């Protein structure tokens, strides 16, 4: 009985260590999922920064009110433009994409 418990414990421990090693080796591919650029309307502008370009989706609006929206992990912020435009109709909207996302 003790031998069976030890064997099962060893197998479970090795399986867990193997899973941990796999997650460690492929952690980058599990975190970042760049999405292709969607089009939720608005205008796309590019802002040059330190050897790269940041794409910004904008919805211009005259007046003093503006909203700057930073999306979450792997979010294409241009897809959020229609709902933000509906929620904030009297604001100019600026939605910067993270480098490598949204196009």
Write the topology of this structure.
Elements: H1 2-25, H2 27-31, E1 43-49, E2 52-59, E3 66-68, H3 81-87, E4 92-96
Parallel strand pairs: 3-4
Antiparallel strand pairs: 1-2, 2-4
What does this structure look like?
The chain starts with a helix and ends in a 7-residue tail after the last strand. The protein is elongated, with a radius of gyration of 23 Å. 35% of the residues lie in helices and 22% in strands. The model has no long low-confidence stretch (mean pLDDT 85). With 103 residues, the chain is an alpha+beta fold. The protein has a 4-stranded mixed sheet with strand order 1-2-4-3, with helices on one face.
The number of distinct β-strands equals 4
> In percent terms, what proportion of residues is strand?
15-25%
pLDDT averaged residue by residue: 85
Could you tell me how far the N terminus lies from the C terminus, measured between alpha carbons in angstroms?
Answer: 59 Å
**Strand numbers in spatial order across the main sheet:** 1-2-4-3
Approximate shape = elongated
- Supply the helix-strand structural class: alpha+beta
Unreliable residue stretches:
none
User: How many H/I helical runs?
Assistant: 3
Order of helices and strands: HHEEEHE
Summarize the main sheet.
4 strands, mixed
**Radius of gyration (Å):** 23 Å
Helix content: 25-40%
């Amino acid at each position: 009985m003790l031998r069976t418990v030890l064997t099962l414990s060893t197998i479970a421990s090795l399986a867990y260590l193997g899973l941990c090693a796999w997650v460690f080796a492929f952690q980058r591919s599990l975190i970042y999922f760049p999405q292709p650029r969607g089009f939720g309307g608005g205008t796309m502008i590019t802002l040059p920064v330190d050897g790269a370009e940041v794409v910004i989706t904008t919805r211009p609006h005259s007046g003093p009110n503006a909203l700057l929206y930073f999306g979450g992990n792997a979010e294409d912020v241009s897809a959020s433009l229609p709902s933000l435009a509906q929620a904030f109709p009297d604001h100019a909207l600026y939605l910067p994409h993270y480098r490598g996302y949204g196009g």
